[in-house]
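Reminder to self: tokens first, then the designed residues, so the page reads top to bottom the way the pipeline ran.
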């Protein structure tokens, strides 16, 4: 397979022409015949080759039938961010989420808005305002601003990338791969913002900055050639392997004067006049098109089919409700149900099993909802015409089961329905 991919890369590089190929950056490792090379060196050179081919093919445009060599080798792995275009919002379906101080909430799938500070009435939501080529963005709006920033105050948008999805980066060892990051921003607050990378223990940190010079205008930010961390402990399990965060406000405890280098401490922002979005009532910050990829060069946003992006999100959160239907809505569409006709006297019970569409990252927090009332922790007992409290068992990575006693007649039908959510988010 590797031999075939290298062969394809060679043929495609020849196809884009010698002049274009000369514009590619040099391989990071000089490998010659007879010299031993470890796997990380080979992959670094190969990722550089993929990036070169992608850029040249994109430049060649209509003259090429193939727009991305990366798509030939691994169509789902170039962007390690899940839901970078903010297309999926299973939890809130575009509804605004209020954020009090010392709180963290998922907004669009896999994206968390975390805030501790003096401003009040802050909200975050998925909105249908985005640059060309995108449909949605995540928007933060400040309610009542406050210029006071305590040393431990923090406002940020962040995503944890599962460790299983960054194994190949080789963080924590020599030969760790470089990465490149890109995204789109629209904000009322011009100035310098900080982006951070951390490990799960928050014992290794990387801080860089980007500047917004024009208010309320979509601006693409590109941060190429971010060095991989060769120290520290980095999870390669189903835990948080790498955290990406964008700071909208940061107190002195999180600030650093050392930028663009890995540090053995928990820091998140620059100490050189960072923007304090929370100081201004009504201030806004929007984000979309986020991409984190291996290699020294930023490439075009990796657009995945909607069904693929939804499946990636469902590894962390899934619901029985139809897409576009809010959790807790009064609807029987998508319910799991049990209908049994019974004749004997005595206490009657009904229950059923359900399988998750996507195997979960970890055993999820499961919540049942009555489709009749929308009440959480309940199912609907159709025979009794009332909600009932269920019992859950067998909840695992692939599915679950539930049952409940009916409040209806001892002779009749067991007729029960439930909606549900399963949350295994990082």
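Designed residues (426 positions):
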């Amino acid at each position: 397979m590797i031999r075939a991919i290298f062969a394809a890369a060679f043929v495609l590089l020849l196809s884009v022409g010698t002049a274009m190929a000369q514009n590619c950056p040099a391989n990071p490792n000089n490998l010659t015949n007879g010299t031993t090379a470890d796997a990380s060196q080979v992959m670094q050179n190969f990722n550089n080759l993929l990036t070169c081919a992608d850029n040249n093919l994109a430049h060649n445009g209509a003259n090429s039938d193939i727009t991305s060599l990366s798509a030939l080798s691994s169509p789902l792995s170039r962007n390690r961010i899940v839901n970078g275009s903010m297309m999926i919002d299973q939890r809130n379906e575009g509804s605004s989420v209020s954020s009090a101080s010392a709180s963290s909430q998922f907004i669009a799938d896999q994206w968390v808005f975390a805030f501790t500070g003096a401003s009040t009435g802050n909200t975050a939501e998925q909105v249908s305002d985005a640059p060309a080529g995108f449909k949605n963005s995540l928007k933060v709006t400040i309610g009542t601003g406050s210029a006071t920033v305590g040393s431990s105050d923090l406002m940020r948008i962040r995503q944890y990338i599962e460790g299983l999805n960054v194994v190949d980066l080789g963080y924590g060892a020599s030969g760790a791969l470089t990465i490149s990051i890109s995204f789109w921003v629209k904000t009322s607050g011009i100035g310098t913002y900080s982006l951070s990378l951390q490990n799960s223990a928050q014992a290794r940190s990387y801080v860089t900055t980007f500047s917004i010079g024009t208010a309320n205008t979509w601006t693409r930010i590109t941060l190429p050639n971010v060095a991989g961390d060769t120290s520290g402990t980095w999870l390669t399990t189903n835990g948080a392997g790498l955290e990406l965060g964008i700071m909208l406000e940061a107190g002195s405890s999180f600030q650093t004067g050392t930028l663009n280098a890995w540090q053995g401490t928990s820091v998140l922002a620059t100490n050189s006049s960072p923007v304090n979005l929370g100081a201004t009532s009504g201030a806004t910050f929007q984000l979309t098109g986020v991409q984190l990829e291996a290699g020294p060069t930023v490439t075009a946003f990796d657009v995945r089919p909607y069904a693929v992006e939804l499946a990636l999100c469902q590894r962390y959160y899934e619901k029985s409700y139809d897409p576009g239907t809010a959790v807790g809505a009064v609807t029987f569409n998508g319910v799991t149900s049990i209908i049994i006709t019974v004749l004997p006297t005595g206490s009657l019970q009904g229950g059923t099993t359900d399988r998750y569409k996507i195997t979960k990252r970890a055993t999820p927090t499961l919540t049942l909802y009555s489709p009749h009332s929308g009440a959480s922790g309940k199912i609907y007992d159709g025979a009794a015409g009332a909600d009932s409290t269920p019992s859950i068992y067998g909840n695992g990575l692939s599915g679950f089961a539930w049952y409940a006693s009916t409040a209806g007649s001892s002779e009749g039908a067991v007729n029960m329905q439930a909606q549900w959510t399963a949350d295994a988010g990082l």
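The chain is about 15% helix and 35% strand.
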